[in-house]
UniProtKB/TrEMBL annotation:
PROSITE patterns: RIESKE. It holds the Pfam family Rieske. This is Ring-hydroxylating dioxygenase, large terminal subunit. SUPFAM superfamilies: Bet v1-like (SSF55961), ISP domain (SSF50022). Residues 14-119 form the Rieske domain.
Length: 353
C-alpha cells in the first residue's frame, strides 16, 4: 500500500467494459492488466478477447480489420479467428507448407453477463473452470441478460490499491464529496457503527436498515429499506439496496490498466422503470462524485512520490487493511497451490463520518 505501483492479481475475472460499447462486427483495443487486449463482438453477437499483438511482426491487431468472423492484420494481412487461431497468411505460395494450427495470437476467456464484458486473466494458462474463480459474480435480483441503467467510467492515475482504499474509505465524504448543492459548508460528523463479516473473496457490511432521515429511499423503494455493501477481489464494490417495492444494485469496478493506472466504473441496475428519463441527471451526479474521488487520489500521488510510511488507524482504515490482507493471501495461496483462506474475521467497526 505504501508503493505507487500495485501487484496485479491473476486467476480472476475483471470487468473490461459494458457490452453496449462493443457493437456486432466491431472491435476495440484496450490496455488491461498491463497487456494489450483486443475486445470484439462477432456477427452473431458473441464477445471475444484476443491478445492485441500480431505474432508475425508484433503490430497491434486493432489497427487492422474485422469482418465479423476474422481479424486481419493491417501489416501483412494475416487472419485470425475469434479464438486467436491463424487461418490465413496471404504471402504463402503454393510450394510452401505452414501448419496454421501452431500459430496463434493468443486469446482470453471472455463472457458477457448482466450487460458487462468480463475477461479472465489466467495465473498459469489455466481455464477459468480449472481455476479458483470459475465464473464472474452474478449481481442479486437481476437476470443474467439485464444490463445496467446507467454506467460511467473515469481513469484514475493511481494504482488499483490506492483507488480501492480511497473508494472504500468510510470517513472522507465530509471533506471530499462537497459541492454548492451538497454539503456546501461541510457536514456534521456523526458516530457510525456497522457490523462486518467475511464473504466470498472479501467482506460485507451486514444488511441493515437505512436511517429514517433518508426519506428519498423510502419514496423510491418503499418501506423497510435495507442495504448490504460488499467488497471482493479483484476490485468490486457491490451495494444492494432493497425495499418493499423496488431494489437498486450499485456496482463499482476497479480494473488495473497497468501497475499504476486504473479504470474505475460505476454502474447501477434498478427495477424502477419510470426513472429512465432521469438517467442523464443521474449520470451527471455520478460523474461529479467519482471525479471528486479521482482528483483526491491524484493529489495524494504528489506525496506518495516520496515513499512515505502510511499510518493507517484502527476501525476507520480497517477495510483498507483487509484489502491488502486479501491480496496477500490470494497471491500466497496461488504460489503454494492451496485453497484460498479468507483472512477477514467478523467484527464491529466504529468511526465518525
Amino acid at each position: 500500500m505504501d508503493n505507487l505501483k500495485a501487484e496485479l492479481l491473476r486467476g480472476l475475472w475483471y470487468v473490461a467494459c459494458p457490452g453496449a460499447e462493443i457493437k456486432a462486427g466491431a472491435m476495440t483495443g484496450r490496455k488491461l492488466m498491463g497487456e494489450l487486449v483486443l475486445i470484439g463482438r462477432d456477427r452473431h453477437g458473441k464477445v471475444f478477447a484476443l491478445r492485441d499483438i500480431c505474432p508475425h511482426r508484433g503490430i497491434p491487431l486493432r489497427h487492422g480489420w474485422f469482418d465479423g468472423e476474422h481479424v486481419q492484420c493491417c501489416y501483412h494481412g494475416w487472419k485470425f479467428d475469434t479464438d486467436g487461431a491463424c487461418v490465413d497468411i496471404p504471402s504463402t505460395h503454393e510450394y510452401q507448407t505452414i501448419d496454421y494450427s501452431k500459430i496463434t495470437c493468443g486469446a482470453y476467456p471472455a463472457v458477457e453477463q448482466q450487460g458487462l464484458i468480463w475477461i479472465y486473466f489466467a495465473e498459469k494458462g489455466e481455464k477459468p473452470e480449472d481455476g479458483r474463480q470459475p465464473a464472474p459474480p452474478l449481481l442479486p435480483d437481476f437476470a443474467a441478460d439485464q444490463g445496467p441503467s446507467v454506467a460511467i467510467m473515469q481513469p484514475f492515475v493511481c494504482s488499483v490499491d490506492h483507488a480501492a482504499l480511497g473508494l472504500m474509505d468510510p470517513t472522507h465524504a465530509a471533506f471530499v464529496h462537497t459541492s454548492w448543492w451538497f454539503k456546501k459548508n461541510g457536514a456534521k460528523l456523526r458516530p457510525k457503527e456497522k457490523v462486518f463479516e467475511p464473504s466470498e473473496l472479501g467482506w460485507a457490511m451486514v444488511r441493515h436498515k437505512i436511517p429514517p432521515q433518508n426519506i428519498a429511499y423510502r419514496y423510491l423503494l418503499g418501506d423497510n429499506v435495507t442495504t448490504e455493501i460488499s467488497y471482493r477481489l479483484p476490485g468490486l464494490r457491490i451495494e444492494h439496496i432493497k425495499g418493499d417495492r423496488h431494489c437498486v444494485v450499485g456496482l463499482t469496478t476497479i480494473t488495473p490498466v497497468t501497475e499504476d493506472e486504473t479504470e474505475v466504473r460505476q454502474l447501477f441496475w434498478s427495477t424502477i422503470g419510470w426513472l429512465k428519463p432521469f438517467n442523464p441527471l443521474v449520470r451527471y451526479l455520478m460523474n461529479v462524485f467519482l471525479d471528486q474521488d479521482r482528483r483526491v487520489v491524484i493529489q495524494q500521488r504528489e506525496g506518495l512520490e516520496y515513499n512515505p510510511k502510511l499510518m493507517l488507524i484502527n476501525d476507520a482504515d480497517t477495510q483498507g487493511r483487509w484489502w491488502m490482507q486479501l491480496k496477500r493471501e490470494w497471491a500466497t495461496s496461488q504460489a503454494e497451490g492451496r485453497a484460498f483462506d479468507n483472512p477477514v474475521k467478523a467484527r464491529t467497526l466504529r468511526w465518525m463520518s
